[in-house]
Amino acid sequence: MDVRLPLMSAGICLALLVSGCSPDDDKRQVSLEEKTAQFETSLDAIQDPKLKDAVAELGGSLLLLERAQLKLDSKPVETEYGADVLAVLKHYPTPQALVDTYINGLFVLHKDSSSDYLTDLQPVFPFNFNIPAEFLFPHGLEWQSVTLSNKRVIPFQPEWSETDPGIQLSPSSSNLTSPDDLTVTYPFIDGLGMEIKNQPQPVSLQGKVEVIAPRRLYSFDLTKKDVGQTRSNDNLSVTLLKLTNNYAEIEFSNSAPLAPEVSEIPFNPSVVQARDATGQFLSRSGSINQTAAQIAFYQKQLAKMQQQKSWSEAFERQLDEEQRAFEKQQTRHYSKVYFNGPIETLEVSLLDFSAATVTRKDLDLPIRRFDQHTTAKTIQPLTLPVVVYDDQAPTWLKGATLSEEQLKKSVSIRQSVDDPSAARIEFDHTRSFNDELLGTSFSPGDSPVSFFTEDSSGQRDEPIELPPEAYQVDPLRGIITYDLNLFAQTPAFAVGSMPLFLATVDKQTLETDRLPKGLELKGNALVVDLKLFPAQDWRFFARDDSGHYLKEILSVIHDASAQGPALFSVHYFYGQPTQLETYQRTDLTTVQYGFEVKLDKADTSNLAQ
Known about the structure:
Residues 288-332 form a coiled coil. This protein is α+β, with helices and mostly antiparallel strands. Helices cover 18% and strands 36% of the residues. It is built from 10 helices and 28 strands. The strands form 5 sheets. Strands 1, 2, 3, 4, 5, 6, 7, 11 and 14 form a 9-stranded mixed β-sheet that branches. The chain is globular and about 75 Å long. The termini are far apart.
């Protein structure tokens, strides 16, 4: 029995549990640390290993939930925008059409490896999904085998075996960052030279995929006027319990029974989004999906466990029955969702799985090779029977008209004084499309900086005379490094100017049937003559008849030879471009960012005297 499961599916956003607590939360923090210490002590006293594991899982989950609540409550409300996670679904007439695009748009790339006995395979999906916006529907993808050029079929195995002398197909060693990547491993014989090109190459990848699409998705738009009200549409309903500055509490339900296809599958039936007064979507900072009653129930179960001397099947059955009975009473779902910024409107979208469509498909995908640089003279086709749009493009392209003031406002300053002999001030700014077109011909000019002491009231006082080696300015990386060993007085302020760079960008819109010399459309591929359109100065975006930007699948550069110049580039799109947007950097301006930074205090007790 996994008594931890209900909590682990609670939707706690652990990635954001990083901010410190405010003074008001100090007591809660101390109480939580004390509670954690007491729990660990009580755990050490349990002798039965099964009982100890069960108590550790459920108790650890409850403490994690409490820690998540504390961190989310204490996180400063700072506005951060995100994307509409349902945008992809809005491009397709039905949920099933999205499923079909997901499956039919999948292909596999052969990736170069620096090893003589590894070949990496990268499944490429038409959509990019990130937490909390993973693929919206329950789905599964299982790889089964790879077929080699000599017709040999290598079965998939869940991990690479050191003792297997043959060719193996297993998850990639970079599994943490690319969980879908695979590796074909050839036998390595110590002392014998071998070239991977002489080995049989992977030509196709076999597997199976299953996706379950809901009957429909329905969205409720809510504001503070809706607090305490229940909104319904057919079998779906939402009650807005609370809407504060940066979080909302909701309850929702589906009065119709779940379709049998999903009755035993854990999934999240809701997508909660928020906009601020500007109408932009706010990014989420986390959520808690357990009511006080649910938490109290699991705490009660934990207390029962802690009273036991040993684990038994009868006790496990008792806990199971209690849990099933309790969950049967929970007819409504609860969610408390936090956002990075003040909420103006809330959008609660519910997946209606009262009916479901299951799509299963056996996959036999050809493995394609598209090296980033190639000396091939012919253009390799890459057409897929799907259309996919790039919903991030409109926001990203706003950077083409970035102003000096906008650039300056996006600057953030970080300090590091952990090493007083190499203290740092770092100037960073929000990356935008403008950064893509900066090129490499920078002229930062002078980057003056002066250090000052502070007076008795904490204000800036006298400048400090310093030898040149006391500090170093790296204007291109936006970093000032200073050595407190060489300061006769303790600095309290740094004042100066740091260069930023701003491209002047010229935008043109072209019809694909009337392209100028140097640009040619071959099917879904845009061919760019790099002599006429140098890569560091130009960017290209494509639209189709709908007016939406097409997502680029990949791009390659065709070189004259291994050491020769780049001749042309090819950009492949999911769909058929009918209009092209070109962006050319015509000028580069240096913008001086003036600053006065109050310096963090460093521990100087160990500095050389």
